[in-house]
Each structure stands twice: as C-alpha cells, then as structure tokens.
Amino acid sequence: MKLQNSNYKRRLICGLWIVIVIIAGLLSRKTTLIPAIIGDALYAVMIFLMVKFLLIHADYRKIGLISLSICFLIEFSQLYNAPWINQIRNNTFGALVLGRGFLWTDLLAYTAGTLVCLLLSQRFRK
User: Fold this and answer.
1) Where are the beta strands (DSSP E) in 1-126?
2) Which residues of 48-72 are buried (b: 16+ CB within 10 A; e: fewer)?
3) Which residue from 105, 112, 126, 98 is spatially nearest to 41, judged by alpha carbons?
4) Local structure of residue 32 (DSSP, 8 states)
5) What is the pLDDT of residues 11-64, one digit of tens each?
6) How far apart are CA 51 and CA 67, in angstroms?
7) Is the pLDDT of residue 126 over 70?
8) HSE-CB of 41 using CA atoms within 13 angstroms
9) Cβ atoms 89, 75 nearer than 8 A
10) Phi, psi angle pair for 18, to nearest 5°
C-alpha cells in the first residue's frame, strides 16, 4: 500500500509540474521578451515530465533518451508536408504538438531542455 501511495504522490507532483511547464511555455509564446528557444526548451521539459509520469520508476537517463527521441522525431516529422498532416498543423493544438516547420535550432533547445531535466533530477535525487 505504501508503494502505491508513493507512486500516487510522485505522479501527482509530476502532473503538477507538467501543468506549470505548459503554462510557462504558452506564456513564453505570448511575449517577445522571452526568446522562442526558451519555449522550445520548455517543450522538451514537458515531454521529459510526461515520460517520467508514465514510467515513474524508470532511470532518468532512460527517460532523457526517450523524451529527447520523441522531441527529435516530432521535429524531423516537420520535414514531411503531406496535406493531411499540414491540415492538423494548421489548427492551434496541432501546431503546439507537432510544430510547423523544421528548425535545427529547435534540436539544440530540446537537447538543452532535456539536459537541464537530467541535471536537476540528479541534484534532487540525492
């Protein structure tokens, strides 16, 4: 029973962080004071937290690898421009999830966001 409560608490905390990061990421797109690359790094943080939420007991390096792979796959998928996927990308939610155009700088931002998560998880694990 104690393990279930522990998992519940971990997922609750992780879920709250996901909401906070989503809000911060959306706010970063509403102002020109915050560079767009910060929003992209926050996207990687959100993906990291979502993977952690699903794989609550997985090693952080594994979570980092999975989440960075997801971010890279989504970014590289932007090179594919079929009408059906462009139609999805043309609505707000689709654009937020799938992006609109490939930028190699986004790959750097995703890497930085994931590295920050790994460093913070290393620090707070002790």
Assistant:
1) none
2) bbbbbbeeeeeebeebbebbbebbe
3) 112
4) S
5) 999 999 999 999 999 999 888 888 989 999 999 999 999 999 999 999 999 999
6) 6
7) no
8) 15
9) no
10) -60, -45
Distance from C-alpha of 101 to C-alpha of 92, rounded to nearest angstrom: 14
Tokens 């462009």 label which residue? 86
Helix, strand or coil for residue 41? helix
pLDDT at 1: 54
Q: Tens digits of per-residue pLDDT, 57-103?
A: 999 999 999 999 999 999 999 999 999 999 999 998 899 899 988 99
- The residue count of the chain comes to 126
* Rounded distance between C-alpha atoms, residue 36 and residue 29, angstroms: 7
Instruction: Kindly tell me the sign of the dihedral angle through the C-alpha atoms of 103, 108, 110, 111.
Output: positive
